[in-house]
Design brief:
mainly alpha; 107 residues; globular; 4 helices
């Protein structure tokens, strides 16, 4: 008997990350990967992280060369994390074709 493990979808990983970020304002980059053991999950998490940056839910910074990498939620995400989460998932699921409306954030 050969059991094929269920593959995780990008939508599920994004939802998991968005739920985690709803409780935090900042997380170290490596903390997204701390409990992962297999390459496919690491790759899926990295792609989801890039997608969150593209959708302007997350800002990634490294204050100094060789220093820690920080992932911080944007003001647009903080103001309405539940609505933003729904909008991001709707885009990923193909229900809408545009990035959620986001006001510019000062650095």
């Amino acid at each position: 008997l050969h059991v094929v493990p269920e593959r995780q979808r990008i939508e599920d990983k994004l939802d998991e990350m968005l739920q985690r970020l709803a409780h935090l304002r900042s997380i170290l980059f490596h903390e997204f990967f701390s409990d992962m053991v297999d390459r496919p999950e690491i790759i899926l998490t990295f792609i989801a992280l890039l997608e969150l940056v593209r959708m302007k839910a997350l800002r990634v910074t490294q204050p100094s060369t060789g220093g820690s990498i920080y992932c911080e939620v944007t003001e647009a995400f903080v103001q309405d994390s539940t609505g933003f989460r729904r909008a991001v998932l709707a885009i990923i699921n193909g229900e809408v074709e545009q990035t959620p409306a986001i006001s510019p954030v000062e650095n």
